[in-house]
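Section 5.1 Outputs to date
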Amino acid sequence: MPKRATIKISLVKEADEKANEEIEKQIFEYLREYPPKIPWLKNVEEVTVTEV
């Protein structure tokens, strides 16, 4: 069975001015192009932005 890790981050205040879908797309595209140096990371599968 595949394993997954969930990473939750807080966004800067300016993110309030953008649509969640736009933020998700930008973060996802950036992470695909420039994957972070996280041990065991194979690829980025999904980015979800929610209101808190």
